């Protein structure tokens, strides 16, 4: 079924829609309590962007709306100009949006290579030879070739994360959404995540991150949006975020530094 690129309520944006993953004027309330109010943001291919903010700011709700886990009360989500606001997660995946949840998402009973193969086999435009070639490329690129026959349940945390990202790339996404990728990991693993995000950017894939580890997140991304009380307080480069007096007052604290 063909998806209409611009339903009537969003045609007013036709002349100004940028390419990439674009969120416009999102709103969401729970039991009449506003959680998001007029939130707009964007991610271009080849850049990493974070959604940050104190607890209760609305960042998790915003992120889950973009993934398709929950629906907004108002606003639009566009992918390269195409309206995707009401599409379920699997439809967004087909259009090029990959999602990595915080919890382990690989099939624990399958080997590393069969985890990747399970996604490659859903790519109907690839024949079996192409699927196997891409499998080999992913195993090499993410340094898990030596683990190809290892059951996923036996992987370390860092190995599992590399396999999860490789598996996400098996669907050939244009954007990858990372939910709390830095939660509960050690400094070495943070470096691994930074390198993996660099690999995604090299592939011209846009990355959107939400994480409570603000210092390490700002050390990874190109730009960040800071939400406060359901609204975008500011947006900018990491150093601009850190230097913002309002952000330091309500979120980072006066002694914060990168």
Give a quick precis of the structure.
This protein has 258 residues and is α/β, with parallel strands linked by helices. The protein has nine helices and ten strands.
Descriptive overview:
The protein is α/β, with parallel strands linked by helices. The protein has a domain at 17-102 and 173-252: P-loop containing nucleotide triphosphate hydrolases (Rossmann fold). The protein contains 9 helices and 10 strands. It has helices spanning 59-67, 89-95, 112-120, 128-141, 157-169, 187-202, 214-218, 238-243, 245-252; strands spanning 21-30, 33-43, 48-52, 74-79, 82-83, 97-100, 175-179, 206-210, 223-228, 231-236. The strands form 2 sheets. The protein has a 6-stranded mixed sheet, sandwiched between helices. β7, α6 and β8 form a beta-alpha-beta unit. α3 (112-120) packs across α4 and α5 runs parallel beside α6. The chain is globular, with a radius of gyration of 19 Å.
């Amino acid at each position: 079924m063909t998806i209409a690129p611009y339903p009537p309520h969003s045609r007013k944006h036709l002349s100004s829609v940028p390419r990439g993953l674009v969120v416009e004027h999102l709103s969401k309330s729970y039991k009449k309590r506003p959680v998001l109010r007029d939130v707009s943001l964007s991610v271009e291919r080849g850049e990493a962007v974070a959604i940050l903010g104190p607890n209760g700011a609305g960042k998790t709700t915003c992120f889950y709306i973009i993934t398709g886990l929950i629906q907004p009360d108002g606003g639009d989500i566009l992918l390269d100009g195409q309206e995707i606001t009401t599409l379920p997660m699997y439809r967004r995946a087909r259009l090029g949006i990959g999602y990595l949840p915080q919890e382990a998402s690989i099939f624990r009973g399958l080997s590393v290579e069969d985890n990747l193969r399970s996604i490659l086999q859903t790519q109907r435009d690839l024949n079996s030879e192409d699927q196997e070639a891409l499998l080999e490329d992913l195993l090499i690129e993410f340094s898990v070739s030596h683990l190809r026959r290892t059951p996923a349940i036996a992987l370390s945390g860092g190995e599992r994360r590399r396999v999860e990202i490789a598996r996400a790339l098996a669907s050939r996404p244009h954007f990858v959404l990372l939910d709390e990728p830095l939660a509960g990991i050690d400094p070495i693993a943070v470096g691994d995540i930074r390198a993996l995000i660099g690999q995604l950017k090299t592939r011209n894939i846009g990355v959107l991150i939400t994480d409570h580890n603000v210092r390490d997140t700002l050390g990874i991304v190109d730009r960040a949006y800071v939400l406060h009380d359901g609204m975008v307080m500011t947006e900018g480069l990491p150093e601009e975020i850190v230097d913002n007096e309002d952000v330091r007052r309500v979120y980072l604290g006066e002694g914060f530094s990168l």
